[in-house]
Write the structure tokens for this entry.
Amino acid sequence: MAIRNCWHLFHTFFDANQNGTIDKKDFDMALEKTAKNRSLSAGDAKHKEVQESLSYVWEHLKKVADRDNDGTVSTEEWLKMWDEAISAKQNPPWVDRYQSFLFEAEDVTGDGKVDEQEYTTAYTSYGVAADECKNAFKKLTNGGPDTISKDVFEKRFQEFVTSNDPNAAGNYLFGKASF
Ligand SMILES: [Ca+2]
Ligand SMILES: [Ca+2]
């Protein structure tokens, strides 16, 4: 994966409390953000589903990446996980579930498509500037429909992870329009 994408994913999305490592607390914050964006209350079936997805992602991320078993994933451990995944041409085992979580977190109306408004709302909650989100969404959907389906989302995710082409649309999946 292009190294900038690797760090963008780490610092903007996974290390939610920005303390330089990924641990359970970051996933608790991700749950809070998602509940707020989607107006979910604790006890709702949907809230429970999101919580289960995030636990799954964290448990599997920890299993594959936390080599020294200290309960956190450091930047070195994160990088090593991706290096190995890319060499093996196989996504880490938590990726499918994370994609589904993220897509559903963004698709507020639940119509199976993410539009510019939904994309911007989701990523501004992770601290990406709204203008940057809007520009990134244009690049992400360049030449296609103005919404992202789950299939397209998954294709762009693979580009984000594996492509070294700075013009690949997948670079814009996580709200960053300039590098
Ligand atoms: Ca953290
Ligand atoms: Ca560790």
